[in-house]
Amino acid sequence: MRTLTRTAGWSAALCCLLAVVVTASAALGPVRVPPVEVAKVLLNGLAVPASVEFGVRDTVGPLLVPSVDVGFAPVFAYSVEDLHRQIVVNIRLPRILLGAVVGFGLAAAGTVMQGFFRNPMADPSIIGVSSGAATGAVAFLVFPATIPFGFGLQGAAFCGALLAAFGVYAIATRNGHTPVATLLLAGVAVQTFLGAVISYLQLQAENNLREVVAWLMGHLGNASWDEVRVTVVAVPLLFLVLLAYARDLNVLLLGEEEARGLGIAVERTKFVLLSVSALITAAGVAVTGVIGFVGLIIPHMLRLVVGPDHRILLPTAALAGSSFLVAADTVARLGAAELPVGVVTAAVGAPFFLFLLRRREVHEL
Amino acid sequence: MSRTDSETDAGPSESGAERSVESPALGAENLTVSLGGVEVLSGVDLAVEPGELVGLVGPNGAGKTTLLRALRGSLDLDAGTARVGGDPVADLPAKEVARRVASVPQDATPSFEFTVEQVVEMGRTPHRSRFSGPDAADAAAVEEALDRTAVAQFADRPVTAVSGGERQRVLLARALAQSTPALLLDEPTAGLDVNHAVRTLELVSELVAEGKAALAAIHDLDLAARYCDRIVVLSDGAVLAAGPPEGVLTRGSIREAFDARAAITEDAATGAPRVTPLPDVAEDASTGRIHVVGTGGRAASMVGRLAAAGHAVSLGVAPSGDAAAATAREVGAETFLVPAFAGVNDDAREAAAERAEGADAVVVVGEPAAGNRAVSETVPPDRRVLVDCGSLDGTMVDDEDVVETVGEVVADADENRVGGFRFG
C-alpha cells in the first residue's frame, strides 16, 4: 500500500509539472500567447462523456448492427481570442503532445531496458530499434522507390525499427533461451552494421542530404494531428502493458535464475518486455527520428530520486521524460533557426549525465 | 470400535511413510548434468523427506551448487529427473516450482537499492497475481519471515547497505516468505559469524521440525554434523556416502572426498562428530620424530598440533581412555598405552622409552609420574621441551610456543647430524 501511495504522490506531482511545462511551451513562440489564455484553451478542450445513445446502425440481412454514440460535452466554455485558439490548438499543441508522448515512451522504454539488461548504459535503442528506424527512414528518403507497399516515411521507419529489434532477438535466441549478454552484444553488432548502411546511404543522398541529417538528429516539427494520432494512442496503451510487468521487472533485477526461482516465467517475460519496449520506441522514433539521451538519463535521474522499484520508477520516469522532451523541444524551436530537438537533448543531457557520474558513482543502476 | 482404534493407531505412521515414499519433497533420480561440456553431476540419486534436514558436503567443484540448481529447475538435465513434491521440475511452470521450493543462493550481490523489506516481499511473487496488490496472507508471511530471521530491525535499509552476513539472512527471509514445503540452501552460513551461523542453522532446524524439507550445502563439516539429520557426501559429481553424520563423516570418506587428512573426534559439547582437518605432511619442512609424554586435553592438543605441523608423533605412556590417546589414534600417532587406572607397567615403559630415545625431541606436558619420568629422561635436556614441568631439565615453554620450540630443537638435531655429531 505504501508503494501505491508513493506512486500516486510522485505521479501527481510530475503530472502537475507536465501541465506547467505544456502550458509554458504553448505560450512561448513567435506569437506570445498569455499563459492564462493557454490554460483556458486547454480547459475548453476537456470534455466528459455526457450522453450515450444506442441505436441501430445498419442491418446486414437479419442481423442488426448496433451503434453506440457517446456524446461529449465540454466542461468549460471560456471565451478565448480565436487567433490564440488557432495557434495553440492547431500549431503548437500537436507538436507538444507528440513531444510529451514520445518523451514518455522513450523514458519508459529506457527504464525497462536498463532494468532488463541490468546495465546503466542501456537505452531504448540498445537492441537496434533506433538504428533500424533510421535505416528505414534514410532508405526511404534516398531511394523512395525501393520501399514497397507505398509506405510513407513513418511506415518505413517503423518497419525498419521492428525488423532490427526482432532480428536482434532472433539472432540472440538459441534453444528457446535468450541470454541477456548475447542480446546486448548482438544489439551492438547490428547497430554498428546499420550505422555502416546509413553512412553509405548518406553518401548516395545528393539532393536530400539535409533532410536525412535533420531526420537523424530528431525533430518534432511539422507535427500535425494526423501524424500524431497513432503514436498518441499507441504509446500509452503499450505503457500499460509495461506497468503490468513492473513487479516482474523488479524480480528480474535479482538475476534471471533468481527470478525463475521466484516463479517468473523468465523467457516469456523477457519477450514481452523487449517487444513492448521496441514497439513503444518504434512508434516514437518513426515519427520524430532518433532522439537520444531521453531514454538514458531520465531513468537514471528518477532512480536516484524514487529508488529502483519499477512500480514507482516506471510511471515517474515516463512522466518526467514527457516534461523533459517538451521543455527541450521548446528550447529547440525558440531560437532564430530551429534546432533539431535531438541536438538539444544531447547537449543538455550529456553534461548532466557526466555531472551525475561525478557526483555519484553510477557503476550500479 | 477398539478394532478401528488399533487400526488407526497403526495407520498414521504407515500411511505417512507411504506418502513420503511416493513423493519426497525433493528428489533426484540418476541426475546427470553437464556444464560447458563437462559432466558435473553423474547419476546422482537423492531424496529429502518432509521434516528432514539433509546436508550436502564435498570439496569445491564436487557439484553441490549444481545439484541445488538442478533441483530447482535452473539447469537442463542430460539424464535423470529432478522432482519437487513428486513431480518432475521440468514439467512444472516456474510459478508452481516456486510455490514448492525456495532457495537461498550463495552469492547474490544485489546491485539495486531495494530495501530489505522489498527484497523479502519479492518472495511472495509466486503467490500473487499480476494485477492484485498484496493481501493479508502476503503481509503476514513477510512479517513472520522478517521476525524469524531477525532482519526486522533493518527492514527499511537498502539491501546494498547491509553487511554480507545480514544480506545472507535477508535472502533466507525471502525464502521463508515464499512459504514453500522445501528449502534449498547454498552455503547458508558462509560469511556469517559464529553466533549467526548457529542461529541460522537453528532456525533451519526449527523450520524442518515444523515439517519443511531442507537440503543445504554446508562447508563447515562440524556444523553439518551437528544440525543435519543426514549427510550426503558429494565427490566428483557422484554421491560418495550418504547417511547419518556419524556414519558418513569418517576419516576414510573425508580423505576420499576432500583428499585431505582429518581427525574425527566427538565434540565434547554437542556429541556430534567433530572434523579437524590436518595439513599434508610437508616434505622439506624440518620435521622429526616427536615423543609426547602427558595426558588429558593439553597433551591431546599438543599431539594434534605437532601432527598438524608435520611431525611423526608418538605418545606414551598414557591411559587408554585418555583424551590424548584418542587424538593420537585419530592423527595416526603411535601410542604406548596402559589400561586406565592401572599405572605404568614395565613393558609399556620400556617400549615407550625405546621410542623416546630415538626421537628428535620429547615433549613433556605436566609433571610426569615415576614411570613416565624415566621415559622423558631417555633424551638429553637439550632435546626436552617442557610444559608446566619444573622437575626436569630442559627448555621450558608455554603451551602456544611448543610447536615453534620443537621445530627449533628438530632443526638443531638435523644440523648436528649433518656435522657428524649426535649428542646423547
Task: Provide a compact summary of the structure.
In chain A, 70% of the residues lie in helices and 7% in strands.
What does this structure look like?
The complex is a heterodimer of chains A (365) and B (424). Chain A has 365 residues and is mainly alpha-helical. Chain A contains 14 helices and two strands. Chain A is globular and about 60 Å long. Chain A starts with a helix and ends in a 6-residue tail after the last helix. Chain B is α/β, with parallel strands linked by helices. Chain B folds into two domains: 3-276, Rossmann fold, CATH 3.40.50; 289-422, Rossmann fold (3-Layer(aba) Sandwich). Chain B is 38% helix and 24% strand. Chain B has helices at residues 2-22, 64-71, 94-100, 116-122, 136-148, 164-177, 194-209, 221-227, 245-248, 251-258, 296-308, 323-331, 346-357, 370-376, 402-418; strands spanning 26-35, 38-48, 52-57, 79-84, 87-88, 101-104, 182-186, 213-217, 230-235, 238-243, 261-266, 273-278, 289-293, 312-319, 334-338, 361-365, 384-387, 395-396. In chain B, α4 packs parallel to α6 (164-177) and α13 (346-357) packs parallel to α14 (370-376). Chain B is elongated and about 85 Å long. Residues 1-21 and 418-424 of chain B have low confidence and may be disordered. The chains are: A mainly alpha (365), B alpha/beta (424). Chain A binds chain B through residues 1, 4, 118, 244-245, 247-248, 250-251, 253-255, 257-258, 260-266, 307-309, 364-365, and chain B through 69, 72-74, 93-99, 102-103, 105, 108, 110-115, 118-119, 122-123, 125-126, 128, 130-131, 133-134, 160, 178.
Give the SSE string of chain A: HHEEHHHHHHHHHHHH
Number of strands of chain B: 18
Strand content of chain B: 15-25%
Structural class of chain A: mainly alpha
What's the story with the biggest beta sheet of chain A?
Answer: 2 strands, antiparallel
Q: What is the quaternary state of this protein?
A: heterodimer
Q: pLDDT under 50 segments of chain A (min length 5)? A: none
What's the overall geometry of chain A?
globular
- What's the arrangement of strands in the largest beta sheet of chain B? 6-7-8-3-9-10
CATH class division of the largest domain in chain B: Alpha Beta
* Beta strands of chain A, count: 2
